[in-house]
Amino acid sequence: MEYVRIASIEDPLFRQVHQLLSEVFPPEEVLEYSLWKEPLEDPGIRVFAAVHEGVVVGTTEYRYYADWNVAMTDFTIIGREGLGIGRFLAHSRLKDLQKLAQENGQSALYGMFAEIYDPYRVQEHEFGGIKPMDPFVRREVLSHLGYKRIGFPYVHPSWQGDGEAVTGLDLCFMPQDEEQNVLEARLAADFLSRYYAVLENKPQAWLDMVARLRTQDKLALLPI
């Protein structure tokens, strides 16, 4: 299996990647095809495909923020059972991120953010048609990887740009130090402000949430 970076909308593998996105996530979570041109060309956004016998069988997108020494996992998609794709993607991604951290003068990555669906609160999501993409399974797998829920009520702006607040997810963090049980609230607020800067139309609930974070010191990292 190959771990192949996709850096252009013209890459023939990208159509397969976008098809996986459309099959797995609800419409408000998926950026329209043509709008991917600039993100793919952005050196700070890393989109990789797991390619098996010439076919995209999984994909992941993530970002590294050098000034904070943290990463954000945008998505991880498994397209076929029985190939160990999830482990392959997680291992390859972490290896790449640790390399970026070391090039940035750090001994190791501080940690990684991720938005994780909470199917115990919102159960109508249908994910991809295969069991590894079931939100209950995904949540448990991410817990095993070391992700922890950041202790505050979370909403995020819809990627459709309509200003709607999307609920049913938790903002989580996977610290490099497994014993870490708090996160700096300012880091969470700064990260969210930069991550969603591309969306001009943000819901008031999101703006209020970020403002509250800026009044806090530490946030608990809780089990998921």
Provide the fold topology.
Layout: E1 2-5, H1 12-24, H2 37-41, E2 45-52, E3 55-65, E4 70-78, H3 85-103, E5 111-117, H4 135-145, E6 148-150, E7 156-157, E8 165-166, E9 169-175, E10 182-184, H5 185-195, H6 204-213, E11 218-222
Parallel strand pairs: 4-5
Antiparallel strand pairs: 1-2, 2-3, 3-4, 5-9, 6-9, 6-11, 7-8, 10-11
Provide a quick synopsis of the model.
The chain has six helices and eleven strands. With 224 residues, the protein is α+β, with helices and mostly antiparallel strands. The strands form two sheets. Strands 1-2-3-4-5-9-6-11-10 form a nine-stranded mixed β-sheet, sandwiched between helices.
Kindly describe this structure.
The protein is α+β, with helices and mostly antiparallel strands. The chain has one domain (2-222): Aminopeptidase (3-Layer(aba) Sandwich). Helices cover 31% and strands 27% of the residues. The chain has helices at 12-24, 37-41, 85-103, 135-145, 185-195, 204-213; strands at 2-5, 45-52, 55-65, 70-78, 111-117, 148-150, 156-157, 165-166, 169-175, 182-184, 218-222. The protein has a 9-stranded mixed β-sheet, with helices on both faces. It has a two-stranded antiparallel sheet with strand order 7-8. Strand 7 (156-157) and strand 8 (165-166) form a beta hairpin.
